[in-house]
Each structure stands twice: as structure tokens, then as C-alpha cells.
Amino acid sequence: MTFLIVAGDPSGDMRAAELAGALKKKSPGLRIAAVGGGRLREVADEFIEDLAGRGIVGFWEPLRHLRFLRGLLRRIDGRLASSVDGLIVVDYYGFNRRVLEIARRRGIPSYYYVCPQVWASRPGRVAVLKRLVRKALVLFPFEEELYRKAGLPATFVGHPLAESLPAPRLARDGGPPRVGMLPGSRGSELSRHLPLFLEAFKLLREDFPDAEGVVVASGHLPAESFEAARAVEGVRVESDPDYALRSGLDVAITASGTATLENALLGVPMVVVYRMSWPTYWAARALIRVPYIAMANILAGRRLVPELIQADATPEKIADAAAAFLGDPAAASRLRRELSSLRALLSRPGAASRAADEILGDYR
């Protein structure tokens, strides 16, 4: 039995690799063909293309890569035509919708793991998924009911981060203030956010001169991408594969994305920041239907952490928001407890294993 798995960004690549491992463990001899990134490459029997490493995101940015994307879709079509028993797509809706269309034309059952956030924007996507997908495997409990009401079979399998991250730290360990900077896992995010975060840190040091800055480097980006950070006094660049460094931060300045959920589950106070191209921003603003972009705020149903988007994302405003946490330890401690309570909403150990069972159950 052979499955094709398609993931298009670093976080999706990680979730896809976990699922691929679970599938192979439960069904020895099962083969995985994959489009994804480095994590998926390690577990796949056949790796077709590194899509996740290209960092193609946004509304308009994919147009610059149209030739590559069309060529990849043709290659995927050819692979689906050759002995594939099922398709699993992970996140990355814009591209994966086309992949799902190809699978439907070829009569191949399809599964969606880490589904698009239809509750945040473009609810019409539910009707598309109902037509193309046999089953949705969702990471947030409220998504299960949403998809089922729309007529698409869905199962909440739990969120892998809730089971894999270390326990939250609810109090400071002492020592100088530790300020984390997480500018994003894509090259375009890094170029927009890193200079901004470094300027904010310089301003923070005016009020907290002993503050230590740590840029948490994504393993998907080359080391030379972080040279500007190494040139700033008080800043070092570190990888953090086991989250030990991140869990010890006093505040994190974080690009919107998976990192905001990770910080919340770790109980780390944060300032959520995002800048994008202006055409992408205006398109997103017209489509977004939720009042927040940080998952911590969405899950809580209120603004737990500050969000500074586009024109509001200035070094001065970022520094002021971070200073509010550093200057008021009692407020920071309260926030840590509130963020940590969100873990219970998502904790259901064995997410990848449960998703694998849902898929393989259709083939027994």
C-alpha cells in the first residue's frame, strides 16, 4: 500500500513527518511518497520535491513561482497515476486544493490533516473540501463540529504540540531579563521581521540594559541569514530543537504563526507581530473574519497577548509592549498561568497515531 503525502511549509512538514512515521509503524510495508521538506524526506520511501523549503506563501507571492508550481502539479499528477492508494495533504490549502482536484479526477481517496482555518477566513472552502476530501483530521476541538455540520466527516485528533512541548514554566528563574525573537521560518518573514525585532531590542535595552536577546533560528534557513543579529550587542543566535531555551524566556517577540501557539503552550508572555506585502495585507484584511490572529487569543476568545500588525508593527510599539511584561512581573506571572491553561483544550495524547488509525481504518 502506498500513500502520497503533500506538505508545503515547515510546520506542515513536521506534522506530515509525524503522521508518516505513525502510518509506517502501524502498517509495516506501507510506502510513503512525499512532497514536503527535510523532516518528510527522512521518513519517506520516495521523496519527490522539497516544496516546504522554498517558502512560497501569501496571495501574490506564488505568482512569481508559477512555472515551478505548475510543473510540480504535473509531476504529482503523474505519481498519482501510478499505484497510489491514498492522498494525504497537510495544511497549505492554496496548492493542496489543486492536488486534491487531481486525486478526485483519478478516483483516489483523499485525507486532510491540519485543515485550513475556514473559521478565520473564506468559509466557502468548506464546500470545496466536502467535495474533495473523504475525511478531515483536525487539531482544534471546535473544528470538528464546524466541519461535521457542513457535512464533511471530521475527527479531532488532538494537537501534537500539546503532547510534545515541555511543561510550562510559571515563574522566573532569576537572572537578567531574557528576550526571545522569533522572526519566522520563511525567508520572506525573516527579511521583514528580523531588522524590526532587532531595533525593538535595542530600544528595550535602554530601559533594561542587562537584557539578553536570543534570536531563535529556524533550521530551515541558512546560518548566514542571521548575520545581522550576531552584530547586535547583547544578542545571540541559537537553535532550540527541544524548546528548553524558549521555555526560559521572560518575553518573546514573535512573528504570527505556529510559534505563537508554541509560546502559549509553554506559558511564555509574547508580543505577536506580523508584516507582509501590502497587496497581501489588503487581501487578507478583506477576508479575515476573526478579531485576532494569535492562536492564544483565538482559543481564549479575548486578547491575552498584544498583536501588532503591518503599520502598527514599529520598533517603538514592539519595545513598549515587551517592556510592559518585563516591568510588571506580577502581570507576566498571571499571563503565564492563563496561557498554560490553554494546553488542556488541545491535549489528547497520540495525535499522529490517532490520525493514522482514522486513515488506515478505511483500508481494513
Topology:
Blueprint lengths: L1 E6 L2 H17 L4 E6 L1 H6 L2 E5 L15 H15 L5 E5 L2 H13 L4 E4 L11 H8 L2 E4 L2 H9 L4 E3 L3 H5 L13 E5 L4 H21 L4 E5 L10 H4 L4 E4 L5 H4 L3 E5 L2 H9 L3 E5 L3 H10 L7 H6 L6 E3 L5 H12 L2 H13 L1 H4 L4 H10 L4
Helix pairs in contact: 1-17, 3-4, 8-14, 11-15
Can you describe this structure?
The protein is globular. The protein has helices at residues 10-26, 38-43, 66-80, 93-105, 125-132, 141-149, 160-164, 187-207, 227-230, 244-247, 258-266, 278-287, 295-300, 315-326, 329-341, 343-346, 351-360, and strands at residues 2-7, 31-36, 46-50, 86-90, 110-113, 135-138, 154-156, 178-182, 212-216, 235-238, 251-255, 270-274, 307-309. Helix 1 (10-26) packs across helix 17 (351-360) and helix 3 (66-80) packs parallel to helix 4. The chain contains 17 helices and 13 strands. Strands 3-2-1-4-5-6-7 form a seven-stranded parallel β-sheet, sandwiched between helices. With 364 residues, the protein is of the alpha/beta class. The protein folds into two domains: 2-158 and 348-363, Rossmann fold (3-Layer(aba) Sandwich); 178-346, Glycogen Phosphorylase B (Rossmann fold).
